[in-house]
TrEMBL record:
Pathway: Amino-acid biosynthesis; L-arginine biosynthesis; L-ornithine and N-acetyl-L-glutamate from L-glutamate and N(2)-acetyl-L-ornithine (cyclic): step 1/1; Amino-acid biosynthesis; L-arginine biosynthesis; N(2)-acetyl-L-ornithine from L-glutamate: step 1/4
Keywords assigned: Acyltransferase, Amino-acid biosynthesis, Arginine biosynthesis, Autocatalytic cleavage, Cytoplasm, Multifunctional enzyme, Transferase
Sequence positions that bind substrate: T160, K186, T197, E283, N405, T410
Catalytic reaction list: N(2)-acetyl-L-ornithine + L-glutamate = N-acetyl-L-glutamate + L-ornithine; L-glutamate + acetyl-CoA = N-acetyl-L-glutamate + CoA + H(+)
Location of the protein in the cell: Cytoplasm
Descriptive protein name: Arginine biosynthesis bifunctional protein ArgJ
EC number: 2.3.1.35, 2.3.1.1
UniProt xrefs under PANTHER family: ARGININE BIOSYNTHESIS BIFUNCTIONAL PROTEIN ARGJ, ARGININE BIOSYNTHESIS BIFUNCTIONAL PROTEIN ARGJ, MITOCHONDRIAL
GO biological process: L-arginine biosynthetic process; ornithine biosynthetic process
Amino acid sequence: MADGQQFNIVTEGSVTTPQGFTAGGLHCGLKKTDRHDLGAIVCEVAAAAAAVYTTNVFQAAPIKVTRESLASSGRLRAVIVNSGNANACTGKQGEEDAYSMRNAFAEAIGVANEEVAVASTGVIGELLKMDKVYAGIKQLPGKLQADDQAAEDFSQAILTTDLVKKTIAVELNIDGKAVKIGGAAKGSGMIHPNMATMLGFVTTDANIEPSSLQNLLREVTNVSFNMITVDGDTSTNDMLIALASGLAGNDSLSEAHPSWGSFKAALTFVCVHLAKAIARDGEGATKLVEVRVQGAVNDEAAQAIAKTIIGSSLVKSAVFGADANWGRIIAAVGRAGQPVNPDTVDIALGDIVTLRQSSPVAFDEEQALEYLKGDTVIISVNLNMENGKAIAWGCDLTYDYVRINAAYRT
C-alpha cells in the first residue's frame, strides 16, 4: 500500500477477483489466427451497471444494443464481447446480428435478453460471421469460471492489435467489509480522448446503486480513459462498462457515505492503470509518454493543453527520435485554445529543465538524449497562472505504427 493509498493491489487480479463474477474466452473463428476472439463476464446476481461510450457519430451496433439493455433497469447479468470484427457501419443487418448475439447468449446462460450487454472490436464495415458466433456462444458457458485462467482467457479474447493483456484489481475496506474492484481493457490503435477504440470492463462487489455508479464512472473516466491518446482517432466502438454485484455487503455507497472518497480513489486507480496500459501498448510504440500540466486557469484548461501536447504528432515523433525539441511542446501549448501567459511558461523533460519563464535554459543535450531513450518519458509544463492541473498519457509515433495500420484489413 503506497503512502496515502487506502487500498491494496491484488496480485494477478482481474475482473473475476470481486465476489459474484465469472469470465471466460475462446476462439470461435472470427480472427484469422487461433487467438481467442469471443469472451464474456457473467454475474451471479443482477449487478448495478453503468457505461460510457464513444463520442463518434457513427456508433457501432453493439453500443445501441447495450444502451437499450442498460435503459431497461440499470442492471445487467452479463457482457458478451467479440474481437476481430467491430460490427460497425454494417446497417440493419449489423443491428440484427448484435441483438441476435445478445439474445443467444442470454438464452445460453438463462437470463433475460435485457440483462446482457454486447461489445465488439475489430475491422469496421464487415458483417459478423454469425454461424461462428453462435457456435462459440454454445461453448462459452462451459468456459465461465472465477479463476485466474478464466480471467486470462477473457483478457485475451478482447485483444486486437494489442501486444499485452491489461488487467488490474484492488481491495479496500468499507464498513468492515473487504470490497474489491477488478478491471480488464483492450486498446492499442485508433485511440484518442473522449473514448477511443478501447473496450474497458470494471467489476466490483461493492454495494452501490446504478445512478451513483453511473455518475462516478463518468467522473472517473474524465481523468483516466479520456486523458489518453495514441493517434488522434476516435473509434466507433469504444465502451467502458462497470458492474457492481453488491455481494461485499457494505452499506450502499453514495456521496454521503464516509468511504465514498476511498472508493472513488480506488476506482480511479484501476481506470488510470488500465488507461496507461493502453497508452503504453500503442501500436508500434516504444515508450509511454506522460504529460503533466499545472498552473493553468482551471483543470479544464489544463486537460485541454495536456491533450494537445500528448496528441501532437511532432511531439510524439521527437520523443521517438529522442530529440529534446521543446519547441514542439511550447507550440502545442500555444495552439491548445486555452488562456496562456506567453511570458511565464516552464517546461521540463523529466528533471531536465529546458524552458523557464518562457526563456530557453541551457541543458546537457547528452543527458536529455539518454533520458528520452528510456521507456517512460515525462513532460512537465507549468503555466504559472492559477491552480489548474491535469495529466495525460500517450506514446511515441514510430515507423511500426504506419506498418501496422497500412495493412490492418489485409
